[in-house]
């Protein structure tokens, strides 16, 4: 059952990230998930990011806490991806 739930979790995030780079929550926060080249991530990048984010959580959240001192989290660094602020891009278009 746990494997089933993990696969549903992967499909949910990977589908949204692969399609638009954002989940519904990310749209509300005006952030976007991109690869190093600036495009939407593929299935492999999404999978790596999810696996490494679980590792970050298992290390008592240290991978997320790292963001306070560096411009990236552990799972962003290891999956060669990043989160960008979309609201700053919207302001430059106007």
Distance between the termini: 49 Å
Q: Which percent band covers the strand fraction?
A: 5-15%
Structural class: mainly alpha
CA radius of gyration: 14 Å
What does this protein structure show overall?
The chain has helices at 2-20, 24-29, 43-58, 62-65, 74-79, 86-93; strands spanning 31-35, 81-85. The chain is mainly alpha-helical. Helix 1 crosses helix 3. The chain is globular and about 45 Å long. Helices cover 63% and strands 11% of the residues. The mean pLDDT is 89. It is built from six helices and two strands; from the N terminus they run ααβαααβα.
Task: Show the helix and strand layout.
Blueprint: H1 2-20, H2 24-29, E1 31-35, H3 43-58, H4 62-65, H5 74-79, E2 81-85, H6 86-93
Antiparallel strand pairs: 1-2
Helix pairs in contact: 1-3
Summarize the structure.
This protein has about 90 residues and is mainly alpha-helical. It contains six helices and two strands.
Any key phrases for this structure?
6 helices; 63% helix; 94 residues; mainly alpha
């Amino acid at each position: 059952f746990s494997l089933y739930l993990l696969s549903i979790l992967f499909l949910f995030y990977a589908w949204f990230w692969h399609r638009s780079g954002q989940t519904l929550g990310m749209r509300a926060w005006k952030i976007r998930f991109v690869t190093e080249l600036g495009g939407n991530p593929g299935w492999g990048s999404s999978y790596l990011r999810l696996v490494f984010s679980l590792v970050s959580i298992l290390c008592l959240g240290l991978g997320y806490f790292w963001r306070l001192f560096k411009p990236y989290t552990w799972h962003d660094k290891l999956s060669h991806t990043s989160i960008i602020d979309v609201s700053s891009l919207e302001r430059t278009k106007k």
